[in-house]
């Protein structure tokens, strides 16, 4: 059964081959993105030597890793739109009339991009660590890289489920894109995508503990930066697993209920 | 093989006028309309059935319920012993759904990659896939297209590839929803002939909806007509056409001629009347008498004798249904 979903990886790879120029664009995206962040924080740190418990080096490290995690997780952001479009345009018919499970199909397509981008990102990190940015001193052992990949994957699954749940609401509410935009903003604030959560005021830190968002970006970055004690590491990954299971159950229940409600518009 | 019993499907449509209140702002009031209303029919193995109706009559809703995409509001459907919407995963391995206006191929990459994807979706082994692909691509003459990206194919070529992807798994039942939409006459002919071949050689049951009445006329022995969600005819296509009983006589005449003068008895019916042309339906056993009569009219310039078209018959049925 799994083979058909693995085949999706091949299809995505073939698409990349068809648009080779786009692929080259993706390769140079990471260094370009990082360069912008570097100059921005260089300017900010010219007035302060320390922000919260983040030195300039810590901050650059944070955003370097964030850029990599973002490139792997971000493709999931389009899930709500794809689902909304498939339900409203009636393209869902094609998946429902085949022995395919649509939520898995969507998820596997994005997993392929996740693996592709995280592997490329780690290679870039290793290259950067030993060549142009040796002063960053990110310790890269197989152990912490493996934990980083695991934590990033769990972050990916949390984000997938969030956007999938919003997309599934299309079965009941015709336009979910505004809600999607609000979820985007929540993610931006509480996931560590704009700033590390550790430098936020304490009330935001308290709120973010009970929300799933910080486990998307902040946790995987902290894992690789070595900012967590063993106990915190276990707790964080444990919470990530909890959120993935909890949200996957919600996703599947909503999908089951919603697909019965499906009215297949558009002929 | 296909059993449809007292099936209805309703949709929620927002009410056009309603009392303004907080409750109604939060949850908009709606009414339920029937897309399909209490329909029943059975289809045996190896039948080709044409499912005909005007836009919004309930054709596509029915085909979607039969293929497991939609859940009926009331009634029971079984196809090949499965309840489509409940046993979707197993059921969809045995059937195929081809929708003329939607593509199941990956747009950006060569056709063969999509076919390999569907090989895995339908869990075919490599030998099975190779045999089936050789056979189908030979039959539809598309071996040279397999390595071309889908976006570079013409509509006719793409449709043939869609067919191969849809029937790789040798389905027992094929649901065709407007499969010839937008195709030229040659491609349309080739595709319908191919489905006829499958039906004759593999006893594949085919359920076809189309706007193109000529497709139904050439392809189907049985026709089901649906109008406003209700079945108004289910039976042999020749019976409905009364092909053996009547002929259509098309007369070209001068401007001053009044075609009503030709209607001298109950066996002649004036169907349409234009400035220079009139159509008259004549009982077949009265045809000689009628032609003899017409030939003596000086204002008549030309005569054509045709079999009644299915389109004319359907128009008549829809008009009668409208009055009822």
UniProtKB/TrEMBL annotation, chain A:
<feature type="transmembrane region" description="Helical">
    <location>
        <begin position="142"/>
        <end position="173"/>
    </location>
</feature>
<dbReference type="InterPro" id="IPR010390">
    <property type="entry name" value="ABC-2_transporter-like"/>
</dbReference>
<keyword id="KW-0472">Membrane</keyword>
<feature type="transmembrane region" description="Helical">
    <location>
        <begin position="111"/>
        <end position="136"/>
    </location>
</feature>
<feature type="transmembrane region" description="Helical">
    <location>
        <begin position="237"/>
        <end position="255"/>
    </location>
</feature>
<keyword id="KW-0812">Transmembrane</keyword>
<feature type="transmembrane region" description="Helical">
    <location>
        <begin position="61"/>
        <end position="81"/>
    </location>
</feature>
<keyword id="KW-1133">Transmembrane helix</keyword>
<feature type="transmembrane region" description="Helical">
    <location>
        <begin position="20"/>
        <end position="41"/>
    </location>
</feature>
<dbReference type="Pfam" id="PF06182">
    <property type="entry name" value="ABC2_membrane_6"/>
</dbReference>
<protein>
    <submittedName>
        <fullName>ABC-2 type transport system permease protein</fullName>
    </submittedName>
</protein>
<feature type="transmembrane region" description="Helical">
    <location>
        <begin position="194"/>
        <end position="217"/>
    </location>
</feature>
From TrEMBL, chain B:
<dbReference type="Pfam" id="PF00005">
    <property type="entry name" value="ABC_tran"/>
</dbReference>
<keyword id="KW-0067">ATP-binding</keyword>
<keyword id="KW-0813">Transport</keyword>
<dbReference type="GO" id="GO:0005524">
    <property type="term" value="F:ATP binding"/>
</dbReference>
<dbReference type="GO" id="GO:0016887">
    <property type="term" value="F:ATP hydrolysis activity"/>
</dbReference>
<dbReference type="InterPro" id="IPR050763">
    <property type="entry name" value="ABC_transporter_ATP-binding"/>
</dbReference>
<protein>
    <submittedName>
        <fullName>ABC-2 type transport system ATP-binding protein</fullName>
    </submittedName>
</protein>
<feature type="domain" description="ABC transporter">
    <location>
        <begin position="20"/>
        <end position="253"/>
    </location>
</feature>
<keyword id="KW-0547">Nucleotide-binding</keyword>
<dbReference type="InterPro" id="IPR027417">
    <property type="entry name" value="P-loop_NTPase"/>
</dbReference>
<dbReference type="InterPro" id="IPR003439">
    <property type="entry name" value="ABC_transporter-like_ATP-bd"/>
</dbReference>
<dbReference type="InterPro" id="IPR003593">
    <property type="entry name" value="AAA+_ATPase"/>
</dbReference>
